[in-house]
Known about the structure:
The structure holds 4 protein chains of 4 kinds.
Chain A: E1 2-4, E2 12-14, H1 22-30, H2 46-51, E3 87-96, E4 99-109, E5 114-118, H3 125-133, E6 140-145, H4 154-159, E7 161-164, H5 176-186, H6 193-202, H7 218-232, E8 236-240, H8 248-263, E9 267-271, H9 275-278, E10 284-289, E11 292-298, H10 299-304
Parallel strand pairs in A: 5-9, 5-10, 7-8, 8-9
Antiparallel strand pairs in A: 1-2, 3-4, 3-6, 10-11
Helix pairs in contact in A: 5-6, 5-7
Chain B: H1 5-27, H2 41-68, H3 71-102, H4 111-132, H5 136-166, H6 179-213, E1 225-226
Chain D: H1 2-20, H2 22-43, H3 47-79, H4 82-88, H5 93-122, H6 129-157, H7 163-174, H8 176-191, H9 198-224
Helix pairs in contact in D: 1-2, 1-5, 2-3, 2-5, 3-5, 3-6, 3-7, 3-8, 5-6, 5-9, 6-7, 6-8, 6-9, 8-9
Amino acid sequence: MGVCSPLSGWGCASSADSTLPVGAGLAPAREGARPSPTSCCPVIHGRWLRREATPGWYRSRPGAQGTGGAAPVVSARVDTPSTAPALVASGLGRRFGRRWALAHVDLELPAGGSLLLAGPNGSGKTTLLRLLAGRLEASAGTLRLFGLDPRRHRGTVRSGLSMVSHHLSLYPRLTAAETLALWLRLGGEPAPAERVRELLAEAGLEAHGDVEVGAYSAGMRKRLALVRVRIERPHLLLLDEPFSALDSAGRAWLAEWLAGLRREGVGLVLASHALEWSAPLCERAVRLAAGQVTWSGPAAALLEAGG
Amino acid sequence: MKRGWIGWSALAGLALLAVGTWIGLFVAPAERHMGDVQRIMYVHVPSAWIGMVCFTAAFVFAIVSLWSGRRVWDDRLVGAVEVGVVLNALLLVQGSIWGRATWGVWWDWDVRLTTSLVMLLLFAGVLALRRLADDEGRRASWSAVATIVGYVDVPLVYFCVRWWRSLHQVQSTPETVDPAMVLPLRLNAIGLLLVAIWMASRRARLEGARRIAESAAPPARVVSEEVARA
Amino acid sequence: MPEGVIVGGWSYVIAAYGITTTVLVLYVISLLKRAAVTAAEASDDH
Amino acid sequence: MRLARQAWLIFRKDLLLEWRGRARTVSVLLFGVVTLVLFSFALGPEAEPLRRGAAGFLTLALLLSSVLGLNESFRLEQEDQALEGLLLRPVEPTALFYGKALGSAFLLLLLALVLVPAAVILYDLSPTPAGLLQLAGLWALAAAGLAAPGTLYAAITGRLQSQDVALPLLLFPLVVPVLLGSVKAMDLVLTGDPMHQLRSWTLLLAGFDAIYWSVCGILFPFAIEES
């Protein structure tokens, strides 16, 4: 079942949530698998639709399933991204042994909002991003993503999230084209050559699609990892130092590319030192020091304050 | 020091062990073929039983630990595994001594001995894995996973070794037990169980204390500067 | 005494019981010692 | 089904990576041959004891090489934290397990192509064509029995400091049943089966495989996810 966020201009995210009742995903399929009028899904594959369950925050139109009217497609515990904030953290903390890398972090990000994480090395930015991505469990505090508890709705939350961290999660022995095709297929989409070429072009790698990623420069690898996010169609994108390892042309490309995502309604949490590049992309900013938020305000004000 | 019911029952267990061992050594009759050597049974068989009880408890704790994610169950898991490993190691030593006395060899690839040996290696592996894992959460889930896999493996080892052995010789352990031998066996088993519970709970408490000693309270909250608009 | 009975089995019995008792006692001592060390560390730090 | 599709994709990716990094794969194969040669040195030059122990040596060579292959398989995933990327994609951890376990089993299966001929030559075996076929089937069962727990533990030890020691330490005691079953069954194939036990040993091995593949598949998500 496609995820169609009114805010996301990207159309459907192919994703599934095994925690939801089966009927939620099955019912519309019996009705002929027509996308709802509010849907922005350009293409829906019938077979694919039938087999995928509905992600948590998808709220179907009343009566969308027509099997007696009141079938429980609308799940009470989930909300659409338009009303549920993309991210609410309260008192979030993480301890490694005796050291608290992060403590007392309160954050709120509206759906489609953007947040800049500033602060010196070791201030906890990466830890915070890893916590948000669910790759680290919090030692304290609570976290809600899209209004859901990420521990209980792991699959749903993950399908709405993307992260490009310092490690790019690329296989050095795969070519760029193979990487993108694998990513497409893992989400259950076909991977036609033209789609892959399109994505390669977006990263400026058309000429290098058949080269193994291990032979790429750091900047090329970064661009590939970033463009791969396109395939994931997240509602919230987490980026750790995206501007590092890029030359000035690459940074300009990235700034433009991210601005495009922002216009499409993708939420953004960005940890960066390169304030002159990242601050214009974000509405809000927080500064971390020794694992705690010491400053919060508009990103523009942070730039004026000199970081 | 305040002594809880586990502590009192462990004292009772010690008394039971003393009585059971005394009966086993001096009152119960010698076995017809093995003579006095058979008296090793009164410590050997309870060790085997209670060791198995420990591993079974560890298996249950592992499942609860994975399911609930609460660290207390991980503490209990370590307690049960460690006491089980100690008892199992003792079991092998006793078995070896018994084997030397009856079969003339220190080691025989007998079904139970072999299974116990593999079981010891499996659960010692769990303890080793715990020492290698640095993160608290990983340590808990990995030991639970290793415990479950190891426990499920034990019956497989048992059946496999039995089939493997059956080609060479029939099982030779005498199974007929005189009623006079049952009483010390039971007393020792119950006594050892109570003592083992005490040891495991002490070990669990130690693990909990370590966990807390390795952690620290979060730092004091610093005042954050809030800027409303640019 | 019937034929085939193992004589002089007592040394084996004593060895088995002795080793078992010793190991269990040592284990309990190590438990208590480790607990004491952990408690001392905890009180040092806090 | 989403799970099967993802597992299949992971499996194919692993094969491709295995092929691209075939220098490493070849060294795993060579390592297996070297162990076979070493066993003959350990037993002396007479043919008869070697022939009798052939089944055991083959299985041990498989076991020792499997550790190298499994460590390698998860080193690839940890190198650039590719595993994290897969989990965030999101790939079901269960699919990841079955994909990677299949990949490892396949690599171990490849070992047979090198090790069995090497053993036939080195140990002067004379298996019938039917025997070779049976041997291949048993090899597949043994490889599967090693691959499932091996994948589970390699995922754990791949994130430890001393991973190279930890994997055999944890894995070897666990796969004793597979080891015994495989040695016994292969021995029956190689040195004759007067009491027709091969069938039951094969079934036993298959039963072990079923247990390992299901239990490890259930536990893998707990090993790989943070909690």
